[in-house]
TrEMBL record:
<dbReference type="Pfam" id="PF00348">
    <property type="entry name" value="polyprenyl_synt"/>
</dbReference>
<keyword id="KW-0460">Magnesium</keyword>
<protein>
    <submittedName>
        <fullName>Geranylgeranyl diphosphate synthase type II</fullName>
    </submittedName>
</protein>
<dbReference type="InterPro" id="IPR000092">
    <property type="entry name" value="Polyprenyl_synt"/>
</dbReference>
<keyword id="KW-0808">Transferase</keyword>
<dbReference type="GO" id="GO:0008299">
    <property type="term" value="P:isoprenoid biosynthetic process"/>
</dbReference>
<dbReference type="InterPro" id="IPR008949">
    <property type="entry name" value="Isoprenoid_synthase_dom_sf"/>
</dbReference>
<keyword id="KW-0479">Metal-binding</keyword>
<dbReference type="InterPro" id="IPR033749">
    <property type="entry name" value="Polyprenyl_synt_CS"/>
</dbReference>
<dbReference type="GO" id="GO:0046872">
    <property type="term" value="F:metal ion binding"/>
</dbReference>
<dbReference type="GO" id="GO:0004659">
    <property type="term" value="F:prenyltransferase activity"/>
</dbReference>
<comment type="similarity">
    <text>Belongs to the FPP/GGPP synthase family.</text>
</comment>
Amino acid sequence: MPYRQLPQIQDLHRRFLDRLQHAQDDKEPRGLYEPIEYILSIGGKRVRPLLALIAARMFGDGEGLRAGMPVAMAVEVFHNFTLLHDDIMDESPLRRGQPTVHRKWDTNTAILSGDLMLIQAYGHLAESADPSRIPVLLNTFNRVATGVCEGQQFDVDFERKHHVTIEEYLRMIELKTAVLLGGALEMGALAAGAGQEDADHLYAFGRLTGLAFQLHDDLLDTFGEGAETGKLTGNDIIRNKKTFLYIKTLEALDAGEREELVHWFSHTPEDPAPKVARVTEMMRLRGIPELVAELRDDFQRDAYDHLEAVTGDSGWKAVLRAVAEGLLQRAS
């Protein structure tokens, strides 16, 4: 059964949306709050708040939902804050198929509403059911949020760098994507009274699952079926993104082919089909898709080892494992 069809997930999702949909009600000025309401309402998988709520239920029994909801709200508002500002930086016209905030309103509005979202994220954490837990939640959130910003800057830097190493790329995706997944689990558990050792194992599970997910996403972008993944196949190649596949291919090529690959990634032809075809051929001939899949699976095996070490409720551990498996079972 897909994890979103699990009754536990459906219940958590419904309760979270009930809370999220009314978070900006009756707040003025509307020109500040409507953009926040808008970006929070246009979809998304809501994986991060679900992870926070699952971790809280794992340790909080019947009180887990109450303990985990402030964390769920904080990580979702923070995540969308980063998307809002990323869209400004990237000059993106669309987010989840809808106009971005800076296009629907204007850049100044988007910046100010984004700033307020970050403040709101801290406000949600301060609503913790157990006030004694607020300091550790704030410290954890600060660590994770700093990592996300560092990851975004690394990503920006990579666009200008001629040479990016595998280690640098993995560090970038760890910070930009994986640490917030891990942080949602860690904070959800801590909010519900878990010990630091269990919270650390959950953080590691989320971080490693995030790394596996991003590698899987890179693989699907280049070799997945576009109609099934919902993406344009080869979009990373078209946009000259230095993904794991590109870096690993560059390492494996001889000097002549390396020069050819660098040339392909130095421009964007009007018709990208020949570029995508040639680059994917170079990747296949060097066995790069198989190498990426192997590393993805290694990360996920390590993640499950950490989940096994967690002492929380076994039923909710099974739900968490189902979520991870669902993230990695999209069309390939």
